[in-house]
């Protein structure tokens, strides 16, 4: 649906979530942190179950793995928090994204991006903008805006 | 242009003056004979005209000039103040605002029509030619020197008059020499410290007319002795001064002058004058001498204006607040670090810094505090206009205008309050006939009040209208599927339904309200301010809406507690006391969750259960009793850690559905702690209480 229009190359930060590689638009990334103390928010949805202190700001910590129905093992030495700025209901909001691993900043070439296949995928298709290919790896390009609006 | 742009200062001043003018006019409508209001309105017009012309708002100044003339004639008693005149003046005030804010778009035709109306009213009343008559000669020809002698009533200070402020006002008018007359001060043992025994002689050289001097004393004129006389600013002999002041007879002065000593000393010796009188006369002499020298020399530069208050751009206050917030966090971290160490010298510095930062915090907060009267004042006009539009006679009264709130809260309170007041006028207050039928006075009444209640401010809006129709609310709620038909609802729950989105019981949609967008917006706005809203309504007698709001949005004193492994902050102002959870109460699990606090049953909530904590509970759990207003609830925690200065950080929209917390803060070790929403927890606890009473 949208992939045809999105056939543009972009700089992306690639990160790992339970063995899958995801690509975030590098422009939205503000910084990458090691795991810091996380404050649980009782009564909040597991997707936004925590709060962290990012340079004096209280920032919600988001676990994308919830949206993709993945297992959620506790943090390891590889775990990182990717601080991004996204638009939530018209307001730019700083959010921390939990990542099992962060790989690199790379260019995803537009030609390699394919439309989301309707079948053969266990995830909700509206959360995924497209699938890119790099070498023999598939890279999932999540639709961050959609993920945050479909609460 | 920088912030010092003078025309910007004028715009701000003009905005204030217009608000003040409107208040005065509305006041005059109620009390046309009130001299003070009339004078205040006149002064506001005068200042607008004067400063407007100075900053190039010629059209506005010209227009205001005519209005000022009309009011001057009223002031002089030449024409009476009619409600028609006040009405036109209010319209004219709006026109002035237009002329100031967008001079190019202002409707000149409207201005002419208004002026014609003013002229007509003035002409009718005075029976002479219209308002276009020559303006009274206001402009003085140059500085004049005045001798002012005044003595206040003895009890003036107990009635709130501050003579020093009067003197400051005189000083603001021009160069001033002030001498206190202490001759009537009784011996020490007879002194009443609250009485004003002192009189003053003031010699003032000013550009302002005599009326400006009189205006200084406008509020105390009735209870004081005041003489104002012009004097020539020429050097004079002391004898002449004393004689012209009436302090001494000419013969005595001349007789004394014949002797070869200083005149003043002699007169005192003779008992003709007191030493104070002499001192005062000498001061006048030197003032006059200086003044006459001034005249000969180049015109002296204007004395710096005395500055009782200053204008500060709001964003500077915001950034000051942010910085103080960070300072407070840093200070908390320092405190925690030092508590771990054991260096006495550093400890004392840390305590000093704590004292300073909390003082700085309080001062910064107080700078941001604004009396709510500035907000309430706007409602006079709203109620006046709206009641005319709806053809209802409604009186607005208010109390507690001096209650102070953070300016951000005040700003964000405007729209919800407008909505509530509009609703009261439109739906609450019945038309006069209907009121007559139910035995009420034909004039409806709306009361706005504000008061402090702990760390909260309570604002109530009361009308004496028909009250909320519970049947109709229920019917509507069932129709919209908000409640299943036949569900039992507590009265408070039923009334809360009016805050549902899209809920409107109005049968007809008017321009004022009834579109169903309203009370839910109000509720959301109040929630956004971390406040609560309650409705009470007596059918046929009226409705009261109570808003409880926090004093400030930025920093609070908090009590840090631990529940399981999580740490939480409870706003300290809401905390009444901390008690230990009695072991027997603890054992009675999920049975009766009530605690006997000095013969009062207080429901308590186990935060461990509410927060689904998995760690085992501490042996000795504590109960923190919190309250909002009259209602109390106990919160069971594992440990009370201590007080904590809490800089409130709001939660993002991602946590909008989390109700138990009103925000978060950063602790000394850099981790995040959640702030409990006491209002929400108390009402949650109270529903438990209602179930208990129901069963």
Helix-strand layout with pairing:
The complex is a heterodimer of chains A (151) and B (695).
Chain A (H helix, E strand, L loop, with lengths): L9 E8 L2 E6 L3 E6 L4 E2 L9 E5 L2 E6 L1 H4 L12 E9 L2 E9 L1 E8 L19 E7 L2 E6 L1 H6 L2
Parallel strand pairs in A: 2-11, 6-8
Antiparallel strand pairs in A: 1-2, 1-9, 3-7, 4-5, 5-6, 7-8, 10-11
Chain B lengths: L5 H25 L4 H20 L3 H18 L7 H19 L6 H19 L17 E9 L10 H11 E8 L17 E8 L3 H7 L7 E8 L6 H7 L5 H9 L4 H8 L4 H22 L17 H27 L3 H24 L1 E3 L1 H18 L3 E6 L4 E3 H22 L3 H6 L6 E10 L2 E8 L6 H10 L11 H6 L22 H10 L3 E7 L3 E9 L4 E9 L2 E6 L3 E6 L2 H5 L6 E4 L2 E7 H4 L11 E7 L2 E7 L1 E9 L13 E6 L5 E5 L1 H17 L1
Parallel strand pairs in B: 6-8, 13-21, 16-18
Antiparallel strand pairs in B: 1-3, 1-4, 2-3, 5-7, 8-9, 9-11, 10-11, 12-13, 12-19, 14-17, 15-16, 17-18, 20-21
Helix pairs in contact in B: 1-2, 1-4, 1-14, 2-3, 3-4, 3-5, 4-5, 8-9, 12-13, 14-15, 15-19
In short:
With 151 residues, chain A is mainly β.
Descriptive notes:
The complex is a heterodimer of chains A (151) and B (695). Chain A is mainly beta and 151 residues long. Chain A has one domain (10-149): Beta Barrel (OB fold (Dihydrolipoamide Acetyltransferase, E2P)). Chain A has helices spanning 64-67, 144-149; strands spanning 10-17, 20-25, 29-34, 39-40, 50-54, 57-62, 80-88, 91-99, 101-108, 128-134, 137-142. In chain A, the strands form 2 sheets. A 6-stranded mixed sheet of chain A has the order 3-7-8-6-5-4. A 5-stranded mixed sheet of chain A has the order 9-1-2-11-10, with no helix packed on it. The radius of gyration of chain A is 15 Å and the shape is globular. By secondary structure, chain B is α+β, with helices and mostly antiparallel strands. Chain B has 5 domains: 6-126, HPT domain (Four Helix Bundle (Hemerythrin (Met), subunit A)), CATH 1.20.120.160; 144-296, no CATH class; 315-368, Orthogonal Bundle (Helix Hairpins), CATH 1.10.287; 370-550, Heat Shock Protein 90, CATH 3.30.565.10; 555-694, SH3 Domains (SH3 type barrels, Roll), CATH 2.30.30. Helix content of chain B is 45%, strand content 21%. Chain B has 22 helices and 21 strands. In chain B, the strands form 5 sheets. A 5-stranded mixed sheet of chain B has the order 6-8-9-11-10. The longest helix of chain B has 27 residues, at 314-340. Chain B is globular, with a radius of gyration of 33 Å. The model of chain B is unreliable at 127-140, 298-307 and 508-516 (pLDDT under 50). The A-B interface holds A 36-37, 39-45, 48, 51-53, 56-60, 62, 88-89, 91, 93, 95, 148 and B 326, 329, 566, 610-613, 649, 651-655, 657-661, 664-666, 669-674.
């Amino acid at each position: 649906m949208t992939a045809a229009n999105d056939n543009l190359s972009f700089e992306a930060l690639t990160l790992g979530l339970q063995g899958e590689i995801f690509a975030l638009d590098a422009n939205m990334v503000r910084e990458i942190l090691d795991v810091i103390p996380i404050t649980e928010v009782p009564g909040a949805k597991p997707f936004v179950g925590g709060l962290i202190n990012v340079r004096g700001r209280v920032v919600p910590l988001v676990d994308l793995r919830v949206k993709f129905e993945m297992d959620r093992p506790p943090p390891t030495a590889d775990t990182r928090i990717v601080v991004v700025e996204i638009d939530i209901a018209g307001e730019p909001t700083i959010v921390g994204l939990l990542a099992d691993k962060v790989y690199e900043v790379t260019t995803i070439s537009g030609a390699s991006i394919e439309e989301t296949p309707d079948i053969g995928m266990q995830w909700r298709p509206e959360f995924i903008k497209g699938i890119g290919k790099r070498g023999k790896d598939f890279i999932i390009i999540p639709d961050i805006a959609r993920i945050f609006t479909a609460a | 242009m920088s912030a010092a742009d003078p025309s910007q200062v004028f715009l701000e001043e003009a905005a204030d003056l217009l608000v003040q003018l409107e208040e005065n006019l509305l006041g005059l409508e109620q009390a046309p004979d009130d001299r003070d209001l009339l004078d205040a309105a006149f002064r506001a017009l005068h200042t607008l005209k004067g400063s407007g012309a100075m900053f190039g708002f010629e059209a506005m100044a010209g227009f205001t000039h005519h209005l000022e003339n009309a009011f001057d004639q009223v002031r002089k008693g030449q024409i009476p103040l009619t409600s028609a005149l006040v009405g036109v003046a209010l319209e004219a005030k709006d026109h002035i605002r237009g002329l100031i804010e967008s001079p190019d778009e202002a409707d000149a035709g409207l201005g002419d029509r208004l002026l014609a109306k003013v002229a007509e009213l003035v002409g009718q009343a005075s029976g002479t030619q219209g308002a276009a008559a020559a303006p009274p000669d206001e402009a003085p020809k140059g500085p004049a020197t005045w001798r002012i002698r005044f003595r206040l009533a003895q009890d003036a200070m107990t009635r709130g008059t501050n003579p020093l402020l009067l003197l400051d006002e005189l000083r603001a008018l021009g160069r001033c020499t002030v001498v206190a007359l202490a001759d009537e001060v009784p011996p020490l043992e007879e002194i009443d410290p609250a009485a004003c025994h002192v009189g003053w002689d003031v010699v003032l050289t000013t550009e302002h007319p005599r009326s400006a001097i009189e205006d200084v004393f406008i509020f105390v004129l009735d209870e004081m002795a005041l003489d104002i006389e012009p004097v020539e600013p020429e050097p004079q002999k002391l004898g002449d001064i004393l004689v012209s002041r009436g302090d001494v007879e000419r013969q005595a002065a001349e007789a004394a002058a014949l002797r070869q000593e200083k005149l003043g000393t002699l007169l005192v010796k003779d008992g003709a004058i007191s030493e104070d009188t002499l001192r005062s006369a000498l001061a006048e002499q030197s003032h006059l001498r200086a003044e006459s020298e001034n005249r000969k020399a180049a015109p002296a530069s204007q004395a710096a204006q005395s500055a009782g208050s200053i204008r500060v751009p709001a964003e500077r206050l915001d950034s000051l607040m942010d910085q103080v917030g960070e300072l407070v966090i840093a200070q908390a971290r320092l405190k925690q670090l030092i508590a771990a160490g054991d260096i006495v010298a550093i400890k004392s510095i840390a305590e000093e810094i704590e004292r300073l930062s909390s003082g700085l915090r309080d001062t910064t907060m107080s700078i941001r505090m604004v009396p709510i009267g500035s907000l309430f004042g706007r409602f006079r006009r709203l109620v006046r206009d709206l009641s005319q539009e709806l053809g209802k006679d409604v009186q607005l009264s208010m109390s507690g205008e001096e209650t102070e709130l953070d300016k951000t809260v005040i700003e964000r309170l405007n729209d919800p309050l407008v909505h509530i007041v509009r609703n009261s006028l439109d739906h609450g207050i019945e038309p006069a006939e209907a009121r007559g039928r139910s035995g009420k006075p034909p004039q409806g009444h709306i009361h706005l009040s504000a008061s402090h209640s702990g760390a909260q401010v309570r604002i109530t809006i009361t009308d004496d209208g028909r009250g909320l129709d519970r049947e109709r609310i229920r019917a509507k709620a069932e129709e919209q599927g908000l409640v299943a038909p036949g569900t039992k609802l507590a009265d408070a729950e039923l009334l809360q339904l009016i805050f549902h989105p899209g809920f409107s019981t109005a049968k007809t949609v008017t321009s004022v309200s009834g579109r169903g967008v309203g009370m839910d917006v109000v509720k959301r706005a109040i929630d956004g301010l971390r406040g609560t809203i309650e409705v009470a309504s007596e059918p046929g007698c009226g409705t009261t809406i109570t808003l409880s709001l926090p004093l400030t949005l930025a920093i609070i004193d908090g009590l840090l507690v631990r529940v399981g492994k999580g740490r939480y902050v409870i706003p300290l102002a809401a905390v009444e006391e901390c008690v230990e959870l009695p072991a027997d109460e603890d054992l009675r699990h999920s049975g009766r969750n009530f605690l006997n606090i000095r013969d009062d049953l207080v429901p308590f909530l186990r935060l461990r259960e509410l927060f689904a904590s998995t760690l085992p509970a501490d042996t000795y759990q504590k109960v923190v009793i919190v309250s909002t207003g009259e209602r109390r609830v106990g919160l069971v925690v594992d440990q009370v850690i201590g007080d904590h200065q809490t800089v409130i950080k709001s939660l993002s929209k991602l946590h909008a559905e989390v109700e138990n917390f009103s925000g978060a803060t950063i602790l000394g070790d850099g981790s995040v702690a959640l702030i409990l929403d006491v209002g929400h927890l108390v009402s949650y606890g109270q529903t438990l209480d209602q179930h208990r009473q129901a069963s």
